[in-house]
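Thread: Newbie trying to understand structure tokens

Hi all, I'm a second-year student working on a class project, and my supervisor (Dr. K.) asked me to get a predicted structure for one chain before our next meeting. I've only ever worked with sequences, so writing a 3D structure as a token string is new to me. If someone could post the tokens and maybe explain what I'm looking at, I'd be very grateful. Here's the chain:
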Amino acid sequence: ALPIYTPTISLTPSITPTITPSSTSCPYICCLGSAFTSSAISTISNMMFLDDDTILIMGGNMISYQGIPIQDLIRIDACGNLLNAYSYPSNFASGGGSGGLAKQSDGKIVVALGRQTFRLNSDYNSIDTTFVSGYTDANTGLLGIETNSNDEIIIVGNFGTNWTTTAGTI
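---
Reply by user tm_fold:
Sure, no problem. This is what the structure looks like when written as tokens:
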């Protein structure tokens, strides 16, 4: 659970409010960028708060988080501790954009990153290997992703000449 920050409010004789944050063992996360080692063109492009009070962070060209090697999708707790650094299920992440994150009704998260899609299991600890992920041509990429009420996945982007899945080329 996220830490609860309950401020202490007091009034001085001049009726000037003073707010003092309560002490906590968890530091405030105000500047996530300072925790990343990255290339000159790195970006943090998407975030999603999850049901277990953790945070998915997606970006591009991120090299490490708090000194730990990562790719471009991680999960942290509310204190900024790294919980998961996800590896792409294929080598089709380079090029393209950071399309985003979309939640399905079963709690699984569909990810559009670089040139591919993949899905995280509902416990957020691993990639769902049963998902028919797809990828597109080199130097193109995914720009957005959503799910509708029927759990259909809608992706937009620069697909090149084809969209390939483990089920074949579309």
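A couple of things are worth pointing out once you decode it. DSSP finds no helices and 15 strands in the chain. Confidence is low (pLDDT under 50) at residues 13-24. Feel free to ask follow-ups in this thread.
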